[in-house]
Each structure stands twice: as structure tokens, then as C-alpha cells.
Amino acid sequence: MSTSIERVNCLIIGSGPAGYTAAIYASRANLKPVLYQGLEPGGQLMITTDVENYPGYPEGVQGPQMMEDFRKQAERMGTDIRYGLVTSVDFSGPVHKAVIDEELTIEAHSVIISTGASAKWLGLESEQRLNGHGVSACAVCDGFFYKEQEVAIVGAGDTAAEEATYLSKLCSTVHMFVRRDQMRASKVMQERVMNASNIKIYWNTETVEVLGDKVVEGVKVINNKTNEESTIPVTGFFVAIGHKPNTDIFKDYLDTDDVGYIITGPDSTKTKVPGVFASGDAQDKIYRQAVTAAGTGCMAALDAERYLTEKGIV
């Protein structure tokens, strides 16, 4: 049970590129935003090593360092950044409510959701141990580091097919592991994979272990029809079995797609609830990049400012 109540103009839930950018813009608009960082302050970039595709970092930057830079900038602008997890929300009334750690209730005139998404993993100890050291859930983010090298990718849907095709343009060979004897990807995506001469598909194949001490050196797989094991030397291992948006607590109030991504209006971050806006990977299942997340964080803050101005609150 929550024991105290606090009212704010703008509540930001989540602290990745979307949340921090929303905070910077909301602070500059004098919305006096309060941002709760959630379970994973900084989001997915905290488990990303080199980031070379974000503008303004000509030498590249470590993911955690970039998120620290974002946080400091938001703080300098005046954002009230807090540790804490939003455990439930109530968007049924004119003022939106969010319960923090089941102790404090925040009543907010506007809410910006930037809770992100979490990559789905295979659940292997070696996969987690080498995460950021050759194991990645984003080929577009990290494929560049494996130019002219052999890599592996796991998955069978459109994302896996798209990422395998992307990697095939950079890497010497892409070993693609598909658990069944067919792919779930659309026909056009399958054709692209089949037409790439350097993508080698392994049907009925599951990953047993990612090999390597400090960095990825190979992968052990098993054919689930013949039980035959084999070891393939690779320097990169990409997991493309999907992402799960961190949006479960909002589903009673907001429209989501069948996976859980929040549905927003065209060319905006507005949800179906007035005053509630969604940004970043909580609503973007297509691009999923730090720079696009930051862009929608900016949009959400501008949308929130307009909403609060029209209501005469700020």
C-alpha cells in the first residue's frame, strides 16, 4: 500500500536515451519533470560496449558512459532523477497515478513512458557471460565490429532474416541457426537470406554453448533431429529471437500490439489516453536505435508541453 502522495506536472518513466532526452526537453520547457530510472537505469545501452553510430561521439563511446552523459545533461537542466520502480499505474482519471515501489503515489498531469524493451535471450550461462564481448542482440548496432569475420546468428523470424542479410554485407560468412526445418520469416525476407551466398543455414539446429573465455571464439550447436553436435569457429554471436517491450503495467489502459508495443497516433507519441505519451523502444519495434529513441523522447516532451499548455497547467 502506498503511504504518501506527490503531485507533479510531468512524470517520466524509464531512463534510456528516450527518457533522458524527454527529460532534457521537458526541463528546458520548465515542466519540472520527475524521472524514475526503473530496474535498469540507462536501459539496454548499459550492456553495450562500443557505440560508434551515435552522432557527436567521433571516437565512439562506451554505452554506459553515453548514458552517464545523458543523465548528467538531464540533471543539469533541472530534472529530478530518482531511483525507483513504477510498480503500477492508474490512467482512468483526469490526473494520472503511478505507484513507486508500492510506497509513494505520484499524481501526474502528464506521463512520458520510456520503459524500453528487453531482448529475448536463449538462457545460456555462456551467452550472458560473453554479452558485450562478442554476444549481441543487435546486428545493426554491432555488426560493424565484425567486418570480414565469421559470425553466427540465431533466429527464424523477419528480424533474424533482416539481421542475417545485414551481416552478410559486412562479414565473410554468416552461420544462421534455425530451430525447426523452416523459417517463420516472410517469403521476401527468406528469399533474401537464401540468395545471399555467404549465409549458411543450419536447419533443426539449437545452440548448446557459446565458446570463449574473454571473447567469443566459437559456438557449439546440436542438430535436434540427429543429435549430432558440431563446433563452429566464430567471433560474433547474434541473438535475434525477438524483444519484449517493458509495458505490462500499462496494458489495462493503453492499446498495445500483439507483442506489447504501445500504439501511438500517427506522427506523434500520443497514446489513447490524453496526457500519456510513449517513446523509445516501448513503442518502436522497427528501428530500435539509441538515436531514434532519443528522437521520440524529444517528441514526447514537446507533445507533453503542448498538452499541459492547452490545459493551462503550465
What does this molecule look like?
The protein has 7 helices and 19 strands. Helix content is 24%, strand content 27%. With 314 residues, it is α/β, with parallel strands linked by helices. α1 (17-28) runs parallel beside α2, α1 packs parallel to α7 and α5 (158-168) packs parallel to α6. It folds into 2 domains: 4-118 and 243-310, FAD/NAD(P)-binding domain (3-Layer(bba) Sandwich), CATH 3.50.50.60; 121-239, FAD/NAD(P)-binding domain, CATH 3.50.50.60.
Q: Which secondary structure elements does this structure contain, and how are they paired or packed?
A:
Elements: E1 4-13, H1 17-28, E2 34-36, E3 50-51, E4 61-62, H2 63-76, E5 80-82, E6 86-90, E7 96-100, E8 104-113, E9 117-119, H3 125-129, E10 135-136, H4 139-142, E11 150-154, H5 158-168, E12 173-177, H6 187-195, E13 199-202, E14 205-211, E15 218-223, E16 229-232, E17 236-239, E18 243-245, E19 276-278, H7 290-310
Parallel strand pairs: 1-2, 1-8, 2-5, 8-19, 10-17, 11-12, 11-17, 12-13
Antiparallel strand pairs: 3-4, 6-7, 7-8, 9-18, 14-15, 15-16
Helix pairs in contact: 1-2, 1-7, 5-6
The total count of helices amounts to: 7
In round numbers, the mean pLDDT is 95
Given as residue ranges, the uncertain stretches (5+ residues, pLDDT < 50) are none
Number of domains: 2
CATH C-level class of the largest domain: Alpha Beta
The main β sheet shows up as: 7 strands, mixed
- Would you report the number of β strands? 19
What attributes characterize this protein structure?
2 domains, FAD/NAD(P)-binding domain, 314 residues, alpha/beta, 7 helices, 27% strand, 5-stranded parallel β-sheet
